Amino acid sequence: xxxxxxxxxxxxxxxxxxxxxxxxxxxxxxxxxxxxxxxxxxxxxxxxxxxxxxxxxxxxxxxxxxxxxxxxxxxxxxxxxxxxxxxxxxxxxxxxxxxxxxxxxxxxxxxxxxxxxxxxxxxxxxxxxxxxxxxxxxxxxxxxxxxxxxxxxxxxxxxxxxxxxxxxxxxxxxxxxxxxxxxxxxxxxxxxxxxxxxxxxxxxxxxxxxxxxxxxxxxxxxxxxxxxxxxxxxxxxxxxxxxxxxxxxxxxxxxxxxxxxxxxxxxxxxxxxxxxxxxxxxxxxxxxxxxxxxxxxxxxxxxxxxxxxxxxxxxxxxxxxxxxxxxxxxxxxxxxxxxxxxxxxxxxxxxxxxxxxxxxxxxxxxxxxxxxxxxxxxxxxxxxxxxxxxxxxxxxxxxxxxxxxxxxxxxxxxxxxxxxxxxxxxxxxxxxxxxxxxxx
Length: 440
Hints:
Rossmann fold; 17 strands
């Protein structure tokens, strides 16, 4: 049977329809433009380092006449990614492989999001610390997701402990892009010389265990700039120490801005018989004569929690450095304050606990609960669980929480709060800025 002209026309129409359908399926979906910017710089930062690098990257792009937009990861939407031709990520990993607090939403979305990034070039700078088991885990998840969305990952740089050589590779990426290095932007707040005025041991040595390295005590230091000019800082900001071998160490500034000195609480850490790079330097240089190089660095994620309601402060050990300025700020504004603090024993930390007890005695602290692990067998989460009814009354509805100390303590404390207040309360407090944490 021979095909007629009509048969051939029908066949041609079917082939044309099939080709058209194939083209529709295979063609790249149109990407929505956003504010006319072709480059996007995204940061996810726990202590501010990744944010600072992202800001310097953004400034370098603008300086080279590029259209660029800077966004925090939690403010990122799929249209922002799909609308960019070039994306630069600067992200850190916190704890045991977690995303920073300002990227929790993005981290959860990575598993479910489906965004066509075909043709989009992506560079990722991942900050981490090899002392933790899951080095740069959030950066790895982000890289895998970008590749799964068909993006071209042109650079993936991991940085251990802010190593200068690794950070310089990011400058090389920008130079290769024709943008130029960001070094000039990062030198706006250059390190200065500081003098150690006084140093006092306020807590005794700690033996090594599964969660913490050994230490030779906790020290209270007062420092002044050698040039006599004390810079401004906000509650939550950090003293960034620069060592002679190019490394950096962050320490919470333990007092409010004002006065003549900057206060730190530093635990002298001993790892395999060797003092820590930063803590060893700060606790071994002679008082009055000792000089260090450092700068003040913003820590936007650890600013005073929002609201005017009661404040619950939770911490242990060297976490007192982070809690102290928050409590001073809250007490100065009349907020009722409840402090739950952990130490090993009264005798071990008499110098540290003296100030807390004095604040409680003068009613500056509404309530003070102490967990002494070696003396009473109590830890911070035990206090939270034992007083769950009081916690519910104190925290509802507009109270805030500030949490500072070792990662294991912090995660256990958050678990106890979650059990008492519920997951929704904790999520809402974090999103609204009523929960601030600095865990290490």
